[in-house]
Design brief:
Length: 434
């Protein structure tokens, strides 16, 4: 063994795998270098404003008490209240919450919303708990967060393993613990609520619809049709399902899907609605869907397809699988699915990436509409919501695409530059207190 190889092997052993925070910081720093961001503003944006960690007890169905750990990280609020999801997953920790909160700051800024960025959740495998336990866990978590969230301060939304029901429990708990005269006025403490409880028609599909739209806009710019294009999706939850639903409606063909239970493929096509209905009667799992073949987890990303949509967790596309990916376009439905090493390989290979902070921003734009609707005492309808969402996303997409062409940089760096420049402007205008 040569000394160089031996040293490389030694350092590879010592080097811990990059966490999500390492990735978002590298993405931030490369955009900050590109725009020559003022060092003082770089310092401010490199760190989170507040980090809340709560340990709280919950009574289980059998009478035992279990202690849970929850997080809410607030990265930056220069442009408005903190905004971002709550995730229930065993991988939730401070590093993940910090990184995801930071991505939210760039996402809301890029979308031109009056929000900052926050994120949080509970370190938990929700599949191990009953519905009534999850309700008590959610309500007690909301109580523990207390005034660290609020409709004009920090507004959570659904994320992995949380949904409109989770948001309804949070809203109800938050409102019930306010002084009587303030209760109903606080409905917009969370977005992504059910239609009947202040939710927005279409918020359920907003993220996946946005993923589809950004793919469509990309195809238009590159003068290709979506008809008969094949796509694969990792994650068949809220984002993955709705993105697949709209792509299929536009003529594209779903040929493989992966979820937490396994991976399936069918080169002739997988009917999206049939698969969705199948998961409803198969404990939420896609495995053993009729006419599909099982795929080894490690081979999933390397399957033949035109478009790859990661819509599950972060750090999925890495230097291990990036060299073997066959897709020509990656549309990041998930937050942080491609790490910086994986991205360098993809760009080198000429594979286009629609970055997460643009690709999945339909969700937070939908959340903003819901917040406005609640704040103004209005009720918006589906058609109007989808139209406004399309218009807003088209504006963001064009801005990022044009910036990247003009400056000859990749779309992620372009999106970060636009987002950071907007926040920089706010700091320059306001100065630093005192
Ligand atoms: P979800 O809980 O509805 O669905 C998650 C899906 O991922 C499920 O199908 C699950 O089985 C699958 N999954 C979980 N672990 C997996 C693994 N190790 N390998 C493969 N599949 C796995 O969550 P969601 O709301 O659809 O969120 C998915 C991603 O999109 C997350 O990264 C989230 O941060 C991001 N996102 C969500 C929204 C939103 O509005 N829900 C908005 C923007 C971004």
């Amino acid at each position: 063994m040569t000394t160089i190889t031996a040293n490389l092997k030694k350092s590879a052993k010592k080097m811990p795998l990059k966490g999500m925070m390492d990735n978002v910081m590298e993405q931030f720093n490369s955009a900050a270098d590109h725009i020559n961001l003022h060092p003082n503003i770089r310092k401010i944006l490199s760190i989170t404003n507040n980090e809340v960690l709560v340990n709280f007890p919950v009574k289980m169905d059998n009478g035992d008490v279990e202690i849970f750990t929850g997080y809410r990280v607030q990265h930056n609020n220069a442009l408005g209240p903190y905004k971002g999801g709550l995730r229930y997953h065993p991988t939730v920790d401070l590093d993940a919450a910090r990184a995801l909160a930071m991505w939210m700051t760039w996402k809301t800024s890029l979308a031109g919303l009056p929000y900052g960025g926050g994120k949080g959740g509970i370190k938990i495998d929700p599949s191990k708990y009953s519905e009534s336990e999850l309700e008590r866990i959610t309500r007690r978590f909301t109580f523990a967060l207390a005034d660290n969230i609020g409709p004009e301060h920090d507004i959570p939304a659904p994320d992995v393993n949380t949904n409109s029901q989770t948001m309804a429990w949070i809203a109800d708990t938050y409102m019930s613990t306010r002084p009587p005269a303030q209760r109903t006025a606080n409905q917009h403490v969370v977005t992504g609520k059910p239609d009947g409880s202040g939710g927005l028609e279409g918020r359920d599909r907003a993220t996946g619809f946005g993923v589809y739209l950004t793919i469509k806009f990309w195809a238009e710019k590159n003068k290709v049709s979506l008809d008969d294009k094949t796509f694969i999706v990792q994650g068949f939850g809220n984002v993955g399902y709705w993105a697949a639903h709209f792509l299929e409606k536009d003529g594209a063909k779903l040929v493989a899907v992966q979820d937490a239970h396994g991976s399936i493929k069918n080169a002739k096509g997988i009917n999206v609605e049939d698969l969705f209905n199948y998961t409803k009667v198969n404990n939420g799992s896609i495995v053993d869907f009729p006419n599909s073949k099982l795929v080894d987890k490690k081979d999933f990303f390397t399957l033949d397809c035109d478009i790859l949509i990661p819509a599950a967790l972060g750090n999925q596309i890495t230097k291990e699988n990036a060299p073997k990916i066959k897709a020509k376009l990656i549309a990041e439905g998930a937050n942080g699915p491609t790490n910086v090493d994986g991205e360098a390989i993809l760009l080198e290979r000429g594979i286009a990436i629609i970055p997460d902070i643009l690709c999945n921003s339909g969700g937070v734009i939908g959340s903003y509409f819901e917040w406005l609707q609640n704040r103004n005492g209005e009720i918006w309808h589906l058609e109007e919501v989808m139209e406004k969402l399309s218009k807003k996303l088209k504006g963001s997409f064009d801005k990022v695409f044009d910036y990247s062409e003009r400056q000859a940089i990749d779309m992620r760096t372009a999106a970060f530059c636009i987002a950071i420049e907007r926040i920089e402007k706010a700091y320059v205008q306001r100065g630093i207190f005192p």
